[in-house]
Amino acid sequence: MSVSKQVKRVTTHVLQAMKTEGEKISMLTAYDYSMARILDEAGIDVLLVGDSASNVMAGHETTLPITLDQMIYHAASVVRAVNRALVVVDLPFGSYQGNSRIALESTVRIMKEAGAHAVKLEGGAEIEESVKRILSAGVPVMGHLGLTPQSIYKFGTYSVRAKEEEEAQKLLQDAQLLESMGCFALVLEKIPAKLAKSVSESLTIPTIGIGAGADTDGQVLVTHDMLGITKDFQPRFIRHYLGLFDQIKTAVEHYIGDVKEKKFPNEGEQY
Q1: Does domain 12-240 have CATH number 2.40.50.140?
Q2: What is the DSSP secondary-structure string of 252-268?
Q3: Which of 7, 59, 67, 134 is surrounded by the fewest CB atoms within 10 Å?
């Protein structure tokens, strides 16, 4: 009789221990069951059901259009695939800003309907009440500072944030505020590496960087970027581990050719 190997779940406690022990945290995005299953079996620590689904799955220009219902759909698909990774879900634009009661209601829906393990919110002091209310319900919260894509129309650009001293100081203060409130981790997006290092060293909670240098406690990328599916998006912080756009396109062209030339299916591929 075979005994199945027990999989140790990644929790917020595990991530904290990883920071303490100096082990880097790996994080990628996931939006569907099939991809999430592959990433989980590969041993990823954290899966982020990002509102970047608005871009890579739905083809929108920004993250703003995606709805709470759509995020719940994607999150539930990912959760069903996962045996090990911690699943964090983005609260989408409009579901938490300016009203802490709505923020909690949005979070409760994500936790109950999708079975998520934690939520992520963009911003610092301006979302303090929402973060406090969610935490008071016992839901783990991951913060997100630096380039916050939901505020793209405020910034007007996706360029590096916090290069100036004033904004850098605010980011550091916001990071310390989020930690003091009880956030379990913090994403730092597209900020100077030196600032990310300083913030990471000043906090006891883990930091996850994207375009923030090598000195954060972990790294996150959009899976479609890392695998080379989103071929035309090539900022300097992305490393393409595969070129799946071209590989898939070549495979499909091969399939089309076989169908047109009556090479598929062959005798061994039919009943």
Answers
A1: no
A2: HHHHHHHHHTT-SS-GG
A3: 59
CB atoms within 10 A of CB 183: 24
What digits encode the pLDDT tens for the residues 147-172?
888 876 666 667 788 788 999 999 99
- Amino acid 13 reads H
Long-range contacts of 10-13 (CB under 8 A, 24+ apart): 10/45, 10/46, 10/84, 10/85, 10/86, 11/86, 11/117, 12/86, 12/118, 12/140, 12/184, 12/185
From CA 33, how far away is CA 92, in angstroms rounded? 20
CA angle 150/45/218 to nearest 5° reads 65
Under 8 Å between Cβ of 29 and 49: yes
Q: Give residue limits of the domains in the chain.
A: 12-240, 246-271
Identity of the amino acid at 192 = P
Residue 196 is inside which H or E element, if any?
A: helix 193-202
User: Which pLDDT belongs to residue 231?
Assistant: 83
Which residues are tagged catalytic? 189
DSSP type of residue 108: H
Angle at 108 between CA 176 and CA 129, to 5 degrees: 35
Q: What is the mean pLDDT of residues 63-70?
A: 96
What pLDDT score was predicted for residue 16?
98
Residue 77 has pLDDT above 50, yes or no: yes
Please state, in angstroms and rounded to a whole number, the distance separating the CA atoms of residues 11 and 118: 10
- Euclidean distance between CA atoms 93 and 111, whole angstroms: 17
pLDDT at 235 over 80: yes
Letter string b/e over residues 103-133, b meaning 16 or more CB atoms within 10 A of that residue's CB: bbebbebbbeebbbbbbbbbbbeebeebbeb
ω before 265 within 30° of 0 (cis)? yes
Q: Confirm if 25 and 46 have CB atoms less than 8 A apart.
A: yes
